Structure of Peroxisomal membrane protein 11B:
Amino acid sequence: MNDTVDKLVICLAKRDGIDKLVKTFQYVSKLAHWHVEKTHPDAANRAKQWEVASGLSRKAFRTGRFLTGFNALRRNPGPTTTFRVLAVLSNAGEMVYFFFDHFLWLSRIGVIDAKLARRMSFISAFGESFGYVFFIVSDYIIILDGIKAERRIIKSGDESEDAKENIKRIRGDRVMRLMAVAANLADLIIALADIEPNPFCNHAVTLGISGLVSAWAG
């Protein structure tokens, strides 16, 4: 119990942790608005206000975050040429997403022309989806490499403590990367709803569940 509380405190002490919490508020309120829209209009209106406020506060809180892509590339560009290319493409997409998200936020709060909101939303979402595709590809390759490495250890018949620790590490990394893939796929669906609106991606339930998966898995 204490470990769980400690992890929660550490998570909420970081910008990403707070962003995930507010993202949870945003998409829970979206689902609540959809659920009571016809039966309780007043409650639905409050839920909608909560959703909008959460979304705008997340955008404000992410100010300057596009620079994290540069930092990620500087610290760990990747062990091979393939991963370096994938890292550049994924982080470039994410940097475009966060950079133009600033202008989307400013247009929605009335600081700049509100007519720019749709264009900024499209560019931001396009960069986001572009980046997430390559993040998913990177994780997929590493997961496959981990599976192959685990099979090699098992086939070798090595039952030493080092071998067991390696298998444990590989499996732990696989779980984390599968969670990352789930979060990125969920965010990709949300981005596609902005790029090419359609009945499936833009449905409140699809967006709500995708947002919660992104927040909790991320």
In short: The mean pLDDT is 90.
